[in-house]
Specification:
- Keywords: Repeat, Transferase.
- Pfam families: Hexapep, PglD_N.
- This is Acetyltransferase.
- By secondary structure, the chain is of the alpha/beta class.
- The protein has two domains: about 15-105, 3-Layer(aba) Sandwich (Rossmann fold); about 105-220, UDP N-Acetylglucosamine Acyltransferase, domain 1 (3 Solenoid), CATH 2.160.10.10.
- Helices cover about 15% and strands about 30% of the residues.
- The strands form four sheets. An eight-stranded mixed β-sheet has the order 6-9-12-15-18-21-23-24, with helices on one face. A six-stranded parallel β-sheet has the order 7-10-13-16-19-22, with no helix packed on it.
- Helix 2 links the parallel strand 1 and strand 2 (about 40-50).
- It is globular, with a radius of gyration of 19 Å.
- The N and C termini lie far apart (about 55 Å).
């Protein structure tokens, strides 16, 4: 990358904010951008998305294909956030980039509440008015959307997506890559399996297996998204 462009993009000076590149230029990318601005620790310098075929610079923000990140990875002041709603795609991009966890930003909107003993991984977003209570464990690249409630001792594994206005009661486990639709309530102690999608407005009263689509009140498995392995 041209040194003049690099200087213009990053504006790196002593005491300046950390620089943030958002991966994904759709609606969620814009939400993360605004959350980062309110968070105050990061300055958004650009968006990477493969809908762009070249780098464009406008008003000190660049838009570029994902391959442009290779021009930035040597700059320790630059951090990244994968703002893609689909957890499987987030996982694929994470593998493609091969960045270590500390290069990913965790963004907490100032109106959110996160208890002091909550464990937050890398690349996590906690969006406006969300609440995470005591002893919850939130792994890497989890998105907790607006006004959601994550009660005590919840465990959310990597690449989980929690949609707006969702309530997870105490000691709920949401396994890797699962998606919980808007307005869903999951009662205490339930496990939602890996890669499963829970439809919006559901009431989940019992464990839901991996790799399926479930919805309703109470939620029931409607179909499996991958062939189940036979029990031997």
């Amino acid at each position: 990358m041209d040194l003049l462009i690099q200087k213009d993009l990053l504006g790196i000076t002593l005491g300046s904010k950390k620089k943030l590149v958002i991966i994904g230029a759709g609606g969620l990318g814009q939400v993360i951008s605004q959350a980062a601005i309110h968070h105050g620790e990061y300055q958004v310098i650009g968006f990477c998305d493969d809908k762009y075929n070249k780098m464009n610079l406008e008003h000190d923000i660049f838009c570029a294909p994902l391959s442009f990140i290779k021009e930035l990875v040597h700059l320790e002041q630059v951090y990244y956030f994968i703002a893609i709603g689909n957890g499987e795609i987030r996982q694929d991009i994470s593998k493609r980039l091969g960045l270590i966890a500390c290069r990913y930003a965790t963004i907490i909107h100032p109106t959110a509440f996160v208890d002091n003993n909550v464990v937050l991984g890398a690349g996590v977003a906690v969006l406006p008015h969300a609440t995470i209570h005591s002893a919850a464990q939130i792994r890497n690249h989890v998105i907790i959307n607006s006004a959601s409630i994550i009660e005590h001792k919840n465990s959310l594994e990597d690449f989980v997506s929690i949609s707006p206005n969702t309530t997870l009661c105490g000691a709920v486990t949401v396994e890797r890559g699962a998606f919980v639709g808007a307005g869903t309530t999951v009662v205490q102690g339930v496990t939602i399996g890996e890669g499963t999608t829970i439809g919006a407005g559901s009431l989940v009263l019992k464990d839901i297996p991996s790799n399926c689509i479930a919805y309703g009140s109470p939620a029931k498995v409607m179909r499996y998204t991958r062939e189940r392995t036979a029990v031997r």
